[in-house]
Design a protein that fits this description.
The protein is α/β, with parallel strands linked by helices. The protein has helices at residues 38-41, 50-62, 74-86, 100-117, 138-143, 147-150, 176-194, 219-232, 284-291, 306-321, 324-345, 379-389, 418-445; strands at 17-21, 24-27, 32-35, 93-97, 125-130, 161-164, 199-204, 235-239, 263-266, 278-282, 349-355, 358-363, 392-393, 395-398, 406-410. It folds into 2 domains: 17-48 and 323-445, Aspartate Aminotransferase, domain 1 (Alpha-Beta Complex); 52-321, 3-Layer(aba) Sandwich (Aspartate Aminotransferase, domain 2), CATH 3.40.640.10. Bound molecules: 4'-deoxy-4'-aminopyridoxal-5'-phosphate. 4'-deoxy-4'-aminopyridoxal-5'-phosphate (PMP) is lined by residues 99-101, 104, 133-136, 205, 209-210, 239, 241-242, 267. Keywords: Aminotransferase, Pyridoxal phosphate, Transferase. This is Adenosylmethionine-8-amino-7-oxononanoate aminotransferase.
């Protein structure tokens, strides 16, 4: 039994962090770790960023907290305008929160209130993908498609209608086009079965995060989903908690495909790991309708406080000033080439996918059948532990609902340099080599 009163999830003993600079962290024993996953895909500007530190200190010297119903505050107004500008005015209204789950929760409630205000209270279902992850609070969990998280709460959440999401690696159809057609057919079928006028919104991540190991969508898929929403009169919500604020090389991932949602959630990289701040962005007419009918029945104490917004503003300004969207494109390409080389070298690396500085690596026992490793082998945990021993942090998952196997994310800070990408790849390569000799070879040699 641990002597610490802290508890999170069960897991291996962890080193204690001492300090961090740029893409590196050090533990109290003096070992360094290259942050190959930006913490939880949140420390997008690396550690100890001076611009953010200075902006936070300057705001602390003015005022840290005001409540949103008592004062306007400059940082909140400026950050809201920045976010709208980042969407090129596709979305014109902003509601601040303190986390990704709160942003999704807010999207769910705003969408429902919108239809309620329009006299369409029979709309009570959300459609979302399996697998997916949208957060840990009960509303966000209801739209999440990841069985281990859902099971204990299934009968106390309002579960969404789950439809399969794109999986271009494991698709059963002969082509990507046929795969997309089949996904859209199934989505339509489920919507019609529930009743088209009972749907509030379709919720999806334009680039999958931890739950899928960065599975991608394509333009035809997003366009098809947009058309379904328009046809059935429901809303389209993109969850960009992980993919937003520059992570993919655009301000928001949807901009790669030009398919615009009605609501968009973002968090993680907005506070860049320096302070919790997230946001719900949405179409102005949705907000106007809700406001004209009694206002949005929702809100959190810390939402949009000056320190949170000054932090977010400094993070966005740093991305602009340091041309980090360009860096993501260039260093992302270097990372992709390096990961592809590792895929060519190790037969158990089945797929490398992603965009910008958001890459997923999927492990397979058999390359031709794409069969995953047995769950008991815990490959995702083993590779993460080995990488950590080699001084590299990666973000692992195994899909326990049989939809895919072990995968991990490689998504370092957007600030990463050429030498640091090379070092990341070197450390990953050693970890994969050790995975092969210390785990996979003995596993394959042992009788089934
Ligand atoms: N949506 C997505 C796509 C996410 O990746 C996450 C966090 N991994 C969340 C929502 C929930 O965010 P938070 O942990 O900040 O509540």
């Amino acid at each position: 039994m641990s002597s610490s009163p802290l508890f999170y999830q069960a897991g291996p003993a962890m080193p204690e962090v001492s300090h961090a600079r740029g893409v590196f962290l050090w533990d109290t024993e003096g070992r360094d770790y290259l942050d190959g996953c930006s913490g939880a895909i949140s420390c997008n500007l690396g550690h100890h960023h001076e611009g953010i530190r200075d902006a936070m200190l300057a705001q602390l010297d003015k005022v840290a907290f005001t409540y949103r119903t008592q004062f306007e505050n400059g940082p909140a107004m400026a950050l809201a305008q920045s976010l709208v500008d980042m969407t090129n005015q596709d979305l014109e209204k902003v509601f601040f929160v303190s986390s990704g789950s709160e942003a999704v929760e807010s999207a769910i409630k705003l969408a429902r209130q919108y239809f309620f205000a329009r006299g369409e209270s029979q709309r009570r279902h959300f459609v979302s993908l399996r697998p997916s992850y949208h957060g840990s609070t009960l509303g966000a969990l209801g739209v999440t498609g990841y069985q281990p998280l859902e099971v204990p709460f299934a009968d106390i959440t309002q579960g969404s209608i789950k439809v399969p999401g794109p999986d271009f690696f494991r698709r059963a159809e002969a082509s990507d086009d046929a795969h997309v057609r089949e996904l859209l057919r199934q989505t339509r079928e489920q919507i019609e079965a529930a009743g088209g006028d009972s749907i509030i919104a379709i919720v999806l991540e334009p680039v999958g995060g931890a739950s899928t190991g960065a599975r991608m969508v394509n333009k035809a898929y997003l366009e098809g989903v947009r058309e379904l929403c328009d046809e059935f009169g429901c809303l389209l919500i993109f969850d960009e908690v992980l993919s937003g604020v520059g992570r993919t090389g655009a301000w928001f991932a949807y901009q790669h495909w030009g398919v615009v949602p009605d609501l968009l959630t973002t968090a993680k990289g907005l506070g860049a790991g320096y302070y919790p701040v997230g946001a719900l962005l949405c179409r102005a007419d949705i907000v106007d309708t809700v406001m004209a009918n009694g206002g949005f029945q929702h809100g959190h104490t810390y939402a949009g406080n000056p320190l949170a917004c000054a932090t977010g503003l400094a993070a966005v300004e740093a991305i602009r000033k340091e041309n980090l969207l360009d860096n993501v494109a260039i260093r992302g390409q270097q990372l992709r080439e390096g990961l592809d080389a590792l895929k060519a070298r190790f037969g158990f690396v089945g797929d490398v996918r992603g965009i910008g500085m958001l890459w997923g690596v999927e492990l397979v026992q058999d390359l031709s059948s794409k069969a995953p490793f047995p769950a008991e082998a815990n490959l995702f945990a083993r590779v993460t532990a080995l990488a950590k021993e080699e001084g590299l942090l990666i973000y692992p998952r195994r899909s326990l609902d049989g939809l895919a196997g072990d995968h991990f994310l490689v998504c370092p800070p957007l600030t990463i340099s050429e030498q640091e990408v090379s070092l990341l790849l070197e450390r990953l390569s050693v970890a994969l080599q050790r995975l092969e000799s210390e785990v996979i070879e003995p596993l394959m040699a042992s009788p089934a």
